[in-house]
Amino acid sequence: MMPHEIPDIEPLLKRLTLANTRRTYRQLIERAERESWSYGMFLSVLVGEEVAHRRQTRIHRLTHRAGFPFVKTIDEFDFSFQSTLRLNLLGSILSPDFITDGRNLILLGKPGRGKTHLAVAVAYRHIQNGFEALFVTAAKMIDQLSAAARDGQLSAILPKFTHPPLLVVDELGYLSYGNDAANMLFHVVNDRYLNGRSMIFTTNKKLTEWGSVLHDGDLAAAIVDRVLERGRVILLDGPSMRSRHLALDHDTASMLPVEPDRISGNYRPDFPGHRPPLEPPKS
Fold this sequence. Notes:
The chain is an alpha/beta fold. It contains eleven helices and five strands, in the order αααααβαβααβαβααβ.
């Protein structure tokens, strides 16, 4: 081999499944020679680029698998229309601890307030943190579970909704559901609760109205109880993102079952160990 001849190591890289390194190693060798890199510097850059490529590939794959209706980031969310919600108040929700601790989140507000955008953005951040996520509307999930139950296949489909580290259930309360809705949803929530897996719900209904939405007050209360034991409620107010130019909006604070703190429907700013009461304590 001549002094500056680049060795053909592609068969070895292919065997090691180092796809990105196969594409870039020749250019990196040439650059290293031009810039007089040390062996350590060359190896560091080579391995670093392979790791970065694999991370981006994984993010792309998990994002596609999550089933988002669109991809939005936290940076794209317009906090200026929210009266209390600010980016710096979402720190614990965006950290990996949100998933590893099995925490939950309910985003509450009238249509058009950005609930789905925020839910997708939080889920996408956790995909970037290395966790899998699944996005599904409440209507679609309940319909699939009900159909499977009628066919005697409920246990076969449940893992689809119970196994991902993060499940986003969108638009709870927007559409009507069958009489078994509470039972179907409870199967998912209870399994995830017992296994410490995180959930995010978006809803336009007060938590006290979930019973009428799901046709079973007792099961709805049990669902809310499990979600909020390690969860919090965030109220999204302000004008509708879709129709704010029409000035049609009214106050949304009455949607919370309690007096809101800075961003949460709970009294405590951090994720509680037990569900807070639905009524504020009397002074």
